[in-house]
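Need tokens for this chain, all 321 residues.
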Amino acid sequence: MSKRTAFSAACAGAVLLAAAGATAQTYSIGTNPQGSLFYASGTALARVMVEQTGLQFRVQPYAGSSTYLPLIDAGKLAFGMANVAEASFAYAGEHLFKTPLRNVRQVAETFGNVSGYAVRKDSSIRTIADLRGQRVPVEYTSGRIFHFVASAALATADMTDRDLEGVPSPNFVSAAKLFMAGRVDAAYLPVSAGITKQANATIRGGIRFLKMGCEAADEARIKTIVPPAFIGKLSPGKTQTGIVEDPTCVIDVPFTLVAGKHVPDEIVRKVVVTMVRNKPALAKAMAAFNRMDTKNLGRKHPNPHHPGAIKAYKELGLWKD
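Here are the structure tokens for all 321 residues:
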């Protein structure tokens, strides 16, 4: 073989290797640690994307969104699961984030994440206002988002955590354990989370979520603290742990998929189209996706949508200008 022929073959091989590398690119989805709802939803999403698109996706767990959202902003991570409050705070550089993460883009709102204050079912505490002076977990130093959402619930009764007999707790799991041990009178918990079900089974007689105001004025108070949050109305049911009264109004801070501005438009477009067309597969992978409303996937939040997502929603007739 001549030197020229050998050189040409080497160049061709390099091109083929480069093409293979591009084809095999993996898109990682940042989530909270294994065992969290974010991890479970990210795992379900990655599985369906691999099965339906032929692209390579994987879940990459981190300590929390304050770790992986900056990586998305810096172009070092493609996607991430968050709730809309975290994504909003990240984009604005507020509360949990010291600097604005302007490259974090909205892709798709997945499903609602409802939470509220729970008490023992036989407790005389009936409303948010009744929590005044009661022993209640506060601070949430390692699960800081709960500080803001719990504060938003208190705001519906014109209260802050200074109106409580605060008991420091690092996160909602620790708060639930204090609740189960009888060391607090109420705890702010996600409805139907594993630890909430455990509390319901452990506490004699079970638990009951407090009714919160359901009016527009109540939602307006909530939004002064957590702008993307909504009021969710729940009715008693097998999957609604601790929901006794009908309706029981709680706070809904939906989960969302975000992406970096650097992610190619066509990749994001494929992700959105695949989510819309494969809800049953997502729900089979994780039951919570049964609650996904495809009409709300493109709902607008403070952080702007990725151009690829906008293109997909327009193609699907789901974009609202």
